[in-house]
Amino acid sequence: MSLFDLSGRWAVVTGANTGIGRAIALGLAEAGADIVGVGRSAMTETAADVKAADRRFVAIAVDLSQAGSAAAVIGKALAAGASPDILVNNAGTIRRADSLDFTEEDWDAVLDTNLKSVFFLCQAFARAALAAERPAKIINIASMLSFQGGVRVPSYTAAKSGLAGITRLLANEWAARGINVNAIAPGYVETNNTAALRSDAERNADILKRIPAGRWARPEDMAGAAVFLASPASDYVHGAILPVDGGWLAR
For the chain, how big is the Rg over CA atoms in Å? Predict the structure, then answer.
């Protein structure tokens, strides 16, 4: 079997309707995995992409910021016939404002979706994998702000910094139990979340000057890293946070 073959595996991908989530879902499907897409909005295009790759697609509509939603997601995935093989925690949100003006509502909205829901999804998924006695892979989507401070995004920076810590903690606890927990840290990617930055000519130019690769990432640039971390090729990789950033952190 190929080191990167995901045939017979199921991948639960949150935020699968667009951007990085959609690209990762398709990349995993092309490597052989069936997909459970999780999101608040319709995932019609993702479903079509996955089915075109001759893989199954199950859609689960849920607001991950709501308490108790994580266990419900895994329960619905299992009820639909999925096995607890791969979990990609990609869903996220961002709020921008100067720290002097940042509201408690914006703080909670980001932390609930980007950090709290991730932990409890990992917990519910790991419980299912251990109960089924199956090896499993968890891939969290971190950020450059897991390493750096950023500006005007205090709750996002806190969440992504916390996500790096949670990734390492869960790897420590679960590595010997057959569950790999790792993360991908995308650089600056052309998604809805970065539209404001890309439309600001000065900020866009400043960002491009620092990226050795000379361009913004495309969502599909994350797919290869996800396939690696989901596959047998990464069986001895635990607690890693893999930057896919065009060289941003090396600059």
Answer: 17
Paired with 47 in beta bridges are none
In angstroms, the CA 145 to CA 201 distance is 21
Domain boundaries, the chain: 10-250
Q: How far apart are CA 225 and CA 100, in angstroms?
A: 37
| Token pair of 138 as six digits | 């968890």
pTM greater than 0.85: yes
Distance CA 221, CA 24 (A): 9
The per-residue b/e assignment along 164-193, b for 16 or more CB within 10 angstroms, e otherwise, is bebbbebbeebeeeebbbbbbbbbbbebeb
pLDDT (tens digit, 9 = 90+) per residue, 198-229? Answer: 999 999 999 999 999 999 999 999 999 999 99
Q: Is 180 helix (H, G, I), strand (E, B) or coil?
A: strand
According to CATH, the topology of domain 10-250 is Rossmann fold (3.40.50)
- Which residues are identified as catalytic? 156
Distance CA 222, CA 49 (A): 16
